[in-house]
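Note to self: keep these together.
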Amino acid sequence: MGTTSVEDPLRTRYVTSLLTGALCVMLTTSACSTSDGTDTTEPAAATSRDTGIHLPDKVRQAGVLRVAANFNYAPKQYLDKNHKPAGLEVDLAKAVADKLGVDIEFHQIAGGVENTLSPVSTHEYDFSIGVFNYTPEHREMIDVMAWVASPLALKVRTGNPADVDPKDLCGVTFGYPPSTIQAEILDTISEKCKAAGKPGLKKVSDFDSPNEALVAGKVDALFGDASVAKYYAKKYVGKIELVPGKVPEAQPKPTGWAFPDKSTKLERAVAQAIDELAADGTWQKILSSAGLEDEAVLPVTVDGKPLRK
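Structure:
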């Protein structure tokens, strides 16, 4: 199992972390645990800077935010050619950490992006980047801090050989990403199809790369964030294309980062940092790099409700 560690001007650390254990190599002086829980380096001194934002004692004393991620979701989160975390959400999270006066560690979690939720729910990490939506299944597990409401788009193989129609998706085989807004919408569409006496959607999730599964014909279509869909349509030019037209059920819904359930103090701190970043224009500038400045949810919400001050 390989491990990579990098450092940038915002004092970012990247640690490859698998659900079966962790192995890390740090370029900065910091605590680093193996799968049996033993430290391999001396613990770091508290390095948080006084910014006027009140942090939980654990984060303040550690001087670092530990963030779970899945870097297979370009252009929002991925590893660049130098194996450094990159993308829209990485830039947003780094800006938040800088505003809070702490370092940030990104921990790569194996599997799909939904695999980041379990270690977040047990406080192994402070939060997870990724565009999660709040569902009843999440209620006792995580809180979702929504910061964006992105439009969604359909991807198919070039030429649309399965004749996927955004207004009638009954019987279509979809790549199915659990614990996402896409999954919720696909479930709704499938139930409507069945109620109308038509075949429901066929949902496939046992693949490593949804785009490769689409190209290989294992699924007929993928449904996801429009900015991500456009990115992959360009990356797989001649193999993947976007379907014109809108899916009636696919209205933009607020989505965002996952925090441990009822981690109110940290959520308030992050929300205050985002408020200040929005006030000085930094937040919108980063969003504009992905064309999402008009889809921002400001102020952020937690589990669909305004965060109490």
